[in-house]
Design brief:
Oligomer: single chain
CATH topology: Nucleotidyltransferase, domain 5
Number of helices: 9
Helix content: 40-55%
Number of domains: 1
Mean pLDDT: 93
CATH architecture: 2-Layer Sandwich
Largest sheet: 5 strands, mixed
Radius of gyration: 18 Å
Number of strands: 5
Order of helices and strands: HEEHHEHHEEHHHH
């Protein structure tokens, strides 16, 4: 019986950058940018691009949104043990309200890159591959790819780390703030979440700068 090959993100962008002279490429992606509550979380992953078996080692790693929670959880250890460096960073709801969602997302990404460097001080990326975002203050060489988590294995691996970390955190926050359904919808604007807001009002971890949470949106709150 032939084993079915799982769909896996590609490495063409990474290999092109290596051919152009870059040595260490980090993929960076976020989770929770569009949620109404909780932090935005970013992952950063540097893969061993000189390994011929890299795609086989990370078979099934692709855009985290295309994977089931069970599949994502099963990939975490493989990503972390295969990567030469990986990190997690986040920006809290208060930082999102103060800075705006795009700057806060970039802050979470910088923290993820910094965390990866702390874990592996000898690994210093000289190029960043980002899932599409305008990181205007970034001085380092980088490329923002539309649907990057589908095109780049480094970005896809980062997206899985970020998604699993944030989902776990939102489940923990559900116990602190019961009634909102954070464990189910992870802070996104589902019907269940909207109904909870109408009944309970906003929690301490809601993003009050987001339109559905602004006081003038009386039809929701």
């Amino acid at each position: 019986m032939t084993k079915r090959t799982l769909k896996t993100a590609g490495l063409s962008y990474e290999y092109d950058l290596r051919a152009a002279g870059y040595r260490v490429i980090a993929g960076v992606d976020e989770a929770g940018r569009g949620a109404w509550a909780g932090p935005v979380v970013a992952g950063a992953v540097c893969l061993p691009l000189d390994r011929d078996d890299l795609t086989a080692l990370l078979e099934g790693v692709r855009d985290s949104k295309q994977l089931t929670p069970h599949a994502r959880a099963g990939l975490i250890e493989r990503i972390q043990t295969t990567a030469i460096s990986w990190g997690i960073g986040q920006a809290e709801h208060s930082e999102i309200d103060r800075l705006g969602i795009v700057p806060a997302t970039c802050l979470a990404m910088q923290r993820a890159v910094d965390d990866a460097h702390r874990r592996a001080p000898d690994v210093q990326p000289d190029f960043l591959l980002l899932d599409s975002i305008r990181w205007r203050s970034l001085q380092q060489k980088h490329l923002a790819l539309v649907k990057g988590d589908q095109l780049s294995l480094s970005i896809a691996a980062a997206s899985v780390l970020a998604k699993v970390h944030r989902d776990t955190l939102m489940t923990e926050l559900d116990a602190l703030y019961p009634g909102y359904g954070f464990a189910a919808h992870k802070g996104y604007g589902t019907a269940l979440h909207q109904a909870a807001l109408r009944t309970l009002g906003a929690s301490p971890i809601h993003r009050m700068s987001f339109a559905p949470l602004r006081p003038q949106m009386e039809h929701l709150l």
